[in-house]
Amino acid sequence: MISRTCGLVLCSVALAGCAAQMADVNWSLAGRDFSAGEAVAPMVFNRKDASRCAGLWMLHGDAVDDGAFSLEAHRAFPAELRLPYAIDAVQFFGEDGVNEVAYREAADRAESQLRKLLAGDRKAFRRYFDALGRCSTKPEAVGDEAGDAIDAPADG
């Protein structure tokens, strides 16, 4: 279970009730929306942005852990949307301290979107998983490409 370092409390009973009502959701789209957000993730975060990401991941981790998502959702989620990744992301983004205001605002906004997506709002569904993708902890690819290299002496 994720610790509630910043006092985030999720009403899991209400969210779990919403999850039970959503049988027609294509949960595999969560991975697609996460990947879309991840494709534009900055990969470098200042403390305020990292705090927002910690708030998003804490809320998501709590929702996963508390049963807000159906078993069908769990099966469709890629590894990045499962509990171990969420716990790692909270630790990653909260490592250097947390801006409490940014953390709380992000968690509150994510909880509102989560409630809407569990109630069937497809726009909230896309925004929720896209936001998690924008807070990806996937390391940037490092390469040693010499696409524009020329064979000439260096200018002094």
Your description of this structure?
The chain is mainly α and 156 residues long. 58% of the residues lie in helices and 0% in strands. It contains seven helices and no strands. Mean pLDDT is 83; it is low at 1-14 and 16-20.
H and E string: HHHHHHH
The secondary structure category is mainly alpha
Q: Which descriptor suits the 3D outline?
A: globular
Assembly context of the chains: single chain
Enumerate how many helices there are, as a single number.
7
Counting DSSP E segments of at least 2 residues, the number of strands comes to 0
Task: Please give the share of residues in helix.
Answer: 55-70%
Average pLDDT: 83
Rg of Cα set? 18 Å
Alpha-carbon distance between the two ends: 58 Å
Beta-strand share of residues:
under 5%
Low-confidence sequence ranges: 1-14, 16-20
Largest sheet, strands/sense/barrel: none
Topology (SSEs and partners):
Elements: H1 12-21, H2 28-39, H3 47-65, H4 71-76, H5 83-94, H6 100-118, H7 122-134
Give a short synopsis of this structure:
This protein has 156 residues and is mainly α. It is built from 7 helices and no strands.
Question: What are the key terms here?
Answer:
single chain, mainly alpha
